[in-house]
Amino acid sequence: MEIIKKKERKDPHPYIPELKDQFLKGKVTRREFLRNSTLLGLSAAAAYAFVSPFSATKAMAAAMPQRGGTWTCGMPLQLIDHPARLSWSEGANVVRQVAEYLSDTGPDNVTRPALCEKWLASEDLKTWDLHLRKGVKFNNGQIMTADDVIFTMNEWLNKDVGSSMLGLLSYWGGPQNIEKVDDYHIRLHLEAGNIGVPEHLWHYPGAILPRTFEGDFIKQPIGTGAFTLEEFAEGERCVLKARKDYWRKGADGKPLPYLDKIVYVALDKDAAMAAMQSGQIDSVYHPRPSDYLALKDNPKVNITSVASSYSYLVRMRVDLPPWNDNRVRTALKMCQDRGKTLQLAGYGLGALAIDAHMSPAHPAYCEKPIPKYDPKGARKLLEEYAKEKGLKLPLKVKLATKNDEAEPEIAQALKQTALAGGFDIKLDITEPGGYWDRWTEVDLGITAWTHRSIAVMVLPLAYTKEAIGAWNETRWYDDEFTALLNKAQKTLDVEKRRVLMCDMEDIMQERGPLAISYWVKIFDISSKKMHGIKVHPTSFHSFTYDMWKES
């Protein structure tokens, strides 16, 4: 009997040759090729080599990193308990120093393996093989294996934990679809194909925990990361100490990290700026555009920036009046003077937005005209609504938000521009904790949403039925929108996915729960003594293991 050997494919996924052909023919951009090919398992090195085969590395005399020193950063310090319940980037920045992720999406929006050594996807994207790195130790000396990863995945999918991962990973179908092949090989049998699996493994509540974890990270700070937690006082200070047995190696061949310590100091934005200017801290977390303007000519600091899908969403609870009427939601959207808001709140440093949670920073974004300020049209809709409900204009509503970023300026701008449209907006602006304690409950609010690299990652987090109870703060979902989203998640061809995005953006603009004036430009402001800091669209501190400080 003749034995027919199965032909081994050259690329990790059969669609990659098609992606290569589309790039060569100019049908997909360099950015789109890099994003999609790496999600399908092509290494970042191979993807970059394909798009830039003739680019030579510049001959630069790079300084050898120095060891030792402390990096001090001004950043709010919020309550941390179970990492799977993380809702804020600041808390994740503490956790990620101690506990790592299966994948890592870099500042270039390319997703690379981290605790995963590699991944392979089936042609229909329903079966994913995750191959784990061997020999990686938790900081308690335990070797990380598939048992720890599967334990963590079960925590994500446990309704009692209350993780946003539950809604994001609804297409997994449940814990029963996670198979342990061996100690370093996990196979996912998904109910629906999804190109975003590697990206979702990097969602910040997805830090990998030991199977002995009992629910409180501050009491049990065990992970595979480059640092251990030495001190944590909510709202005050956090100290992290370098490990001596971390799995990554530095340029000198010794275990990373280069730094001895990381210290986070809980400072509000103004205090952090004062501390930065006086040299008391080395970096400011998520600086404002005004901070950039104040320090851009300071010779002692480095300032870098990147475009993002970070946004301040004016979000409406569609299960509560008056926002359960689409006429009222549409009227508020029409009351935005986006250009004016960008100038007042973002100092002109950003990109105008449509009223859909898809950004030009996302691959497959479908470009749409920016809606114009139309108070007359808004008032006409409100008059119709008010007559039907027996109300008089202006319609009185309360807008809640926090005060540490651009939200107060956005709120004030909307209050002014919406008056002509028939709204009388009362502002309820508090310290960050006063808003985050109730952010999913207020009927009208402004919520800061961090960057996600692909739209099909952010949308399941906040605009599906499954996400109600976690991060669906508006309670909005739409059957037509969900069907299109499910299709987009398994559509490999970028242009075909863009067609779906066009329809989804229309649905959100026509009957969705959001008003968005602009997309935020992200800055990093750090001392010139710091090396290796990479400004990230998410403001995540995922670079610290190989960051170093000049003595």
Overview of this protein structure:
A hairpin with a 5-residue loop joins β4 and β5. The protein contains 17 helices and 20 strands. It has 551 residues and is of the alpha+beta class. The radius of gyration is 24 Å and the shape is globular.
Name the descriptors:
single chain; 551 residues; alpha+beta; D-Maltodextrin-Binding Protein, domain 2; Dipeptide-binding Protein, domain 3; 3 domains; 10-stranded mixed beta sheet; 4-stranded antiparallel beta sheet; 17 helices; 20 strands; 29% helix; 20% strand; globular
In short:
The chain has helices at residues 16-24, 30-39, 44-51, 89-98, 146-156, 165-168, 197-200, 269-277, 289-295, 326-334, 338-346, 375-389, 407-419, 432-436, 455-462, 479-489, 494-511; strands at residues 70-74, 103-105, 111-113, 116-121, 127-132, 178-182, 185-189, 227-233, 237-242, 261-265, 283-284, 301-316, 350-352, 395-402, 423-430, 444-449, 514-515, 518-527, 530-531, 548-549.
Q: Identify the overall geometry.
A: globular
* CATH-defined topology of the largest domain: D-Maltodextrin-Binding Protein, domain 2
Class inferred from helices and paired strands: alpha+beta
How many E strands?
A: 20
Largest sheet: 10 strands, mixed
**CATH domain class name of the largest domain:** Alpha Beta
| Gyration radius over CA | 24 Å
Q: CATH homologous superfamily name of the largest domain?
A: Periplasmic binding protein-like II
Indicate the low-confidence ranges by residue numbers.
1-7, 54-61
The CATH architecture designation of the largest domain is: 3-Layer(aba) Sandwich
State the helix count.
17
Strand content: 15-25%
Q: How many structural domains does the protein architecture include?
A: 3
Task: Give the helix level as a range of percent.
Answer: 25-40%
Distance between the termini: 71 Å
Mean pLDDT: 93
